[in-house]
Amino acid sequence: MIAISTGAAAIAGGVLVLLIATAVWALYTGLAARRAALVDATGAARDATLVAHAPAQAVIVRSDGRVEAPARVADWLGLPAEPRYLADLGGADFGLSTADLAELSTHVNAAQRAARPLRMTVAARGSARKLVITGERAPEATLAPGGVVLWFVDATESQDEIIRLAEDRARIAEAFEALAGLIEAAPMPMWYRDRELQMTMVNSAYVTAVEASDARDALDRGLELVEASGLGGPLANAAIARDTQEPQVAAVPATIGGARRMLRIHDVPLPTGGVAGFAVDVEDLEQARGGIKRFGEAQRAMLDRLSAGVAQFGADRGLVFSNQPFRSIFALREEWLRDRPEFDRVLDRMREAGRLPEVRDFPGWRNERREWFRAATEVAAEEHWHLRGGTHLRVVAQPLPDGGLLVIFEDQTEQVQLASARDTLLRVRTATFDNLFEALGVFAADGRLQIWNQKFRLLWGFDEALLNGHPRVDTLARAAAPRLENPSRSSMIGDLVRSATIDRLQRGGRFAFADGRHFEFAAVPLPDGNALFTMLDITASRRVERALTDRNEALEAADRVKTSFVANMSYELRTPLTSIKGFAEMLHGGFAGALSESGRSYTEAILQSVDRLSGLVDDVLDLTIEEAAGKRTGVDLELLAGAAAEAIAPAAAAKRIELAVEVLEGAGRVFGDADRLRQAVQHLLRHAIGATPEEGRVLLHIDGGPDKARVIVSDNGPGMTEAAVRRAFDRFAPGIARGGERALGLGLPLAKRFVEAHGGTIDLLSEPGQGTLVTVELPRE
């Protein structure tokens, strides 16, 4: 084994460390150089891509004439191969033309010698492109010292746009010239204002209207067509049109040629910011329109005074006018007609109101009437409509020159009825008179009998010969006297007829005949000056009336006897009840000796029955008293509620019923009999407790307003049927007694009587299973 010294080992270790460090440094440097190379390669690829797809392509022309051109330039020029020299940029059938190539060569030489920049536009013969070439001498630091850098830009689209714009400009200029000539030749004044509303152009009609020598004179002097007014003058509408970008129209007067004319001024905003204006002379139109309007108003005023209905429809078949008779005949509301309803809608509304003839095919009938609009204006359609209710209309439809329609509805119902009635009047009158239950006689103004029926003759027993002679009323009165119970009253017939014919007053009365019959008579004045004398047999009604009167008197007497009997019996029952109660109390108190437990329970049962019977007697007496309310004073309803609840509390406790009293601040006071009101509330509470099962709940609630107070008693009992509710306030109907047993139901009737005696109302609401609620309303005064 060879021994190595310590120093040699140290030197070897140092050398080894140095070698490792050198290797690490070399590795790091190599990796960094690799990353830098990758970044440069990526950047170079990106730059190459951008240059290849850029809109401008660079061509380098070296000092010896050689050319470095990208493939896109060759494509743009239509070259079959990439050029190597400047002369290769042109050819016989492709590339630059000979003139363009020569001009380019000259510019390149100038750029090489004098560093003069160049710019020119060329067209490639091998393609449809137009190129813009710009260039300058290449910097010395580039790869082409003494050369020129040319930039080729594809300007095909921009050049086409320039050509199109040039053509548009020429066309617009031509249209402007034509429009200017048209404006100048226009017979109406026309002008133009700039953004500041200054007049900058006028036509010849404007110059003539303002009486200027020429357009320049009108502009220099600032002559306006319209005079200034309080609304801002001629610039007001122009300013509005400029600011709102909306055309403005105004009718203003102006003086032209020494005459006042009405002009319609139009101000139209233009995209330039200015305002164009023109004036239309509407004086003649306004005059004609005013005349037509006045004629139309006069015509409609005349039509509105006609008795016939008139409706006018426009060319669009909308209603433009209708008079009052038309609206009345067809029951159409004026508000609905103001909306200009269409012809078909008007017919539909007439049909709904029942004012059209009954037809089987209404749509077809309506379509036939629509043809009235298409008829010749010299031909008027005429129809007769028979409506329900006997209305007869004569309809005339006249087409108008403007396409509208005028329809006239003449109500001929009266004429038709008169014509029909004229032939049948006598027969109808005779048949009517003879079949009436009344006796009728018509007397003329001189008192002579003119017309009569058989009932009149038979009632008085007059001879035919007497009546055919048309006797005077006094003669008839004397002949009728024997028939009357009091013959002297026959003179009333003459007095009544004279009162109706001379004084024109209607009077009547009653006659009693000697045979016991009764008649009601009357003398009625007629429109023609005559008088109608009528007589109606009321014997049967008199008998019924008398029978009803007798029955009513008998019922009232029976009711008085019943009331008196009930009152007397009630008073008579008080004495034995008092004695029974007194002796029972003595027995119960041990005055006759000590009682056994059974004896004490018997005496207690006697006392309870006596109390029940005493209460029933008191209730009966209350029903028989005529005055249900005595002395009236101010009654505090809160105190009244407390007293009533305290009186009923034992009955509620016996059934373990919760008795709640609720008095609100609005309860206040009422004016009445405190005892009667307390009794009324007690009756309501007793009825509620009696109808409520054990462990139920009864509520007494009192509130009110400024005019009246309200008392409410409600319970959660089983409720009442509808039949029971209807009979709840009937006297002696089955009800609930003080002990909860069935008895005569006097509580609710008494409560109702006491409440109504104070001017109040009581209402009961109940349903089975829902409990019962009774509401009492009492006036404050």
Automatic annotation (TrEMBL):
<dbReference type="InterPro" id="IPR003594">
    <property type="entry name" value="HATPase_dom"/>
</dbReference>
<dbReference type="InterPro" id="IPR036097">
    <property type="entry name" value="HisK_dim/P_sf"/>
</dbReference>
<dbReference type="Pfam" id="PF02518">
    <property type="entry name" value="HATPase_c"/>
</dbReference>
<dbReference type="GO" id="GO:0000155">
    <property type="term" value="F:phosphorelay sensor kinase activity"/>
</dbReference>
<dbReference type="InterPro" id="IPR005467">
    <property type="entry name" value="His_kinase_dom"/>
</dbReference>
<dbReference type="InterPro" id="IPR036890">
    <property type="entry name" value="HATPase_C_sf"/>
</dbReference>
<dbReference type="InterPro" id="IPR035965">
    <property type="entry name" value="PAS-like_dom_sf"/>
</dbReference>
<keyword id="KW-0418">Kinase</keyword>
<protein>
    <recommendedName>
        <fullName>histidine kinase</fullName>
        <ecNumber>2.7.13.3</ecNumber>
    </recommendedName>
</protein>
<dbReference type="Pfam" id="PF00512">
    <property type="entry name" value="HisKA"/>
</dbReference>
<keyword id="KW-0597">Phosphoprotein</keyword>
<feature type="domain" description="Histidine kinase">
    <location>
        <begin position="568"/>
        <end position="781"/>
    </location>
</feature>
<dbReference type="GO" id="GO:0009927">
    <property type="term" value="F:histidine phosphotransfer kinase activity"/>
</dbReference>
<dbReference type="InterPro" id="IPR000014">
    <property type="entry name" value="PAS"/>
</dbReference>
<dbReference type="Pfam" id="PF12860">
    <property type="entry name" value="PAS_7"/>
</dbReference>
<keyword id="KW-0808">Transferase</keyword>
<dbReference type="InterPro" id="IPR003661">
    <property type="entry name" value="HisK_dim/P_dom"/>
</dbReference>
<dbReference type="InterPro" id="IPR004358">
    <property type="entry name" value="Sig_transdc_His_kin-like_C"/>
</dbReference>
<dbReference type="GO" id="GO:0005886">
    <property type="term" value="C:plasma membrane"/>
</dbReference>
